[in-house]
Amino acid sequence: xxxxxxxxxxxxxxxxxxxxxxxxxxxxxxxxxxIAGGLMIGLNPGFREVxxxxxxxxxxxxxxxxxxxxxxxxxxxxxxFRSFKIHGVPATNILLLPGAAIIAHLxxxxxxxxxxxxxxxxxxxxxxxxxxxxxxxxxxxxxxGLGLLIAxxxxxxxxxVLWSQLVFLPSVMLGGLMVPSEMIPDTFAVxxxxxxxxxxxxxxxxxxxxxxxxxxxVGSLLVLLAGAALGVALAVWLFxxxxxxxxxxxxxxxxxxxxxxxxxGALLL
Amino acid sequence: MxxxxxxxxxxxxxxGDVDAVAxxxxxxxxxxxxxxxxxxxxxxxxxxxxxxxxxxxxxxMLRVRGIDPSRExxxxxxxIGVQLQTSGLPETMxxxxxxxxxxxxxxxEPRLDLLERLGLQAKLxxxxxxxxxxxxxxxxxxxxxxxxxxxxxxDEPTAGLDxxxxxxxxxxxxxxxxxxxxxxLATHDMAEAEKLADRVAILLSGRIVASGTPKALTAAAVxxxxxxxxxxxxxxxGHDGALPGVQxxxxxxxxxxxxxxxxxxxxxxxxxxxxxxxxxxxxxxxxRPSLEERFLELTTQGGVA
Lengths: 269, 305
Prior knowledge:
Chain A is mainly α. Chain A contains 12 helices and no strands. Chain B has 2 domains: 6-219, Rossmann fold (3-Layer(aba) Sandwich), CATH 3.40.50.300; 225-288, Alpha-Beta Plaits, CATH 3.30.70. Chain B is built from 10 helices and 13 strands.
């Protein structure tokens, strides 16, 4: 237990000490919130209704997809996990504690956005705060699971950027953050449902704001929960201690299985 | 008699078609310091990594205090202390934080005294990324010893260390021996191995080509003693074949160097030859062959003891 506390404290602290992490966890999403929030509401006053969930989901994507994988890949490439292994640090802690620390940071960011948005942009608060918190945690876990999976399947930090952007950019464009899901053409809408951001926005709007949604918001919450569990499980399964790790070597291609809940969501919801 | 702390039998490790280690055997007793010597790529680090449970043997048997490293990693962790050759910690992890972090995983109290002893007391709050290479090696060493493991593996432990810290490390190693710790030292530094190790094995291309105590190994250097002579007019060059006991002769840095199996007769003959030639003696040295010379002999000539 003492080891877990030390490890968790270290991971949380490193989110503040590491400048790149500080940028991706706080400065980037909060800066984007201030600039894009003001700009988008100026262009489309209706954006005011979704600015809180949209910017919170954006923060989750920035932290979990852009911020989380890179330090893990860099540590593996630098042989840092070998030091962890010889001292008995379990692989699950190496993966789960950075994920949990990032979610803790992002909870603070989400709280800032939730408090500041009504003051700056006259944005409406969630109608159901319990549901808001629940969906936030499910969406955070789903994105963190995906970020961890990207970290373990990426062969290098360069590959990490590619994999992260492959999810991040379509999520920004199609996830319902900038453009409401209802306005996205049908062909893209099906693809959009493969993205956790789409389900996060759908569940936020349906469950936390009580809005009518294009598809089941409870279904979206279940997809997020299943995606989180599968993402984390696959990440732990595919984890390697270093670049020349031996023993059970499973193809990283199995990581594609993380799409199963989202594909089922796209088919059934 | 206590069973050996470390047993390596018919150990082989292959990467594809290449045998990094091609079947070696050795054992290390408790309280013994065992040196693994060899050039780069000889298989030293591979052997250590398999004993540490980082890699898995292709064939053979490895035991560390009766533990199979590849099958019982959880039991192994508290039994061994490891200073890896290439490893690191996260850039932002502080020195004291690292000590507390890893000691917590071993279930022991942090050993801040070790950090102080290794000259890191002024760096407790420094982040790992800001430490010099020598400081990083010292921290790795402190972390390896912090949980008082009965078996310690040190891979090139003094690389990048200054003279003072190197001396402190040597004192620490002597203390570990007194406490009955079995220690395996992989190094390029022959003088260090000769000074510290009770026994050494010289690895070459994945095979042990010589093993024994440093004294026995150097004595096995075909029992030749080195006689180095320097004179004002360097008139000795033509005498090498005629001097008694001389097996080999070389010129190095202005010295005539004779490798002799009858050192007394050789020295007398050298002095006679110089007197006869009226060539004043400038310097004369008689030296026992070092482990390094034995190592070079083996690695350059492929000799087998």
